[in-house]
Design brief:
globular, Phenol Hydroxylase P2 Protein, 4-stranded antiparallel beta sheet, 95 residues, 3-stranded antiparallel beta sheet
Length: 95
């Protein structure tokens, strides 16, 4: 029997503020299947299976150098396995 189940969703949520806005925009640009839900004070981004945050795309949004460790300042919660280096932060669920 073939597994046709939909991939489990991963998510990440940030405080809704000016510092997070370019990060959220970059995530949505790099992950076309991702959806953002905006609520007072919070932005939650869901994606099926995997979500990739790329430093280069955030830098394009901000026009300046960006250290991915800055994500943690406005990060509220996340769900998924984390793989992170200087250029990319990935959330995923293993198979």
């Amino acid at each position: 029997m073939t597994d046709t189940a939909t991939p489990s969703k991963v998510f990440i949520a940030f405080q809704a503020n000016e510092e997070s806005r370019p990060v959220v925009d970059a995530i949505l640009e790099d992950n076309p299947e991702a959806t953002a839900v905006y609520s007072p004070g919070l932005v939650k981004i869901d994606a099926p299976g995997q979500l990739v945050i790329q430093r280069s795309t955030i830098e394009e949004q901000t026009g300046q150098r960006y250290d991915l460790q800055q994500l943690h300042v406005n990060l509220v919660t996340l769900s998924g396995n984390i793989d992170e280096d200087d250029d990319r932060f990935t959330l995923s669920w293993g198979r």
